[in-house]
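U., I forgot to send this yesterday:
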Amino acid sequence: MTDPAYLRLRLPLTASPFTVLRAAVRALHPDTRAVRSFRTARKRFYRQMPCAHAARQAAGDPPSG
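Result:
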């Protein structure tokens, strides 16, 4: 099962980890990125997105969307 937040990024299977990270950063609203108390949750989100992408690449899933 793929993370719904990762699916909303709509990235191709060939995207690099850096591209995935940039897309994850852009996916969050600027006000959300500015809240200091969300820092731990943001870091966890930023770590999960490249992991979800790597898992999708390993599985060879077709692009979603």
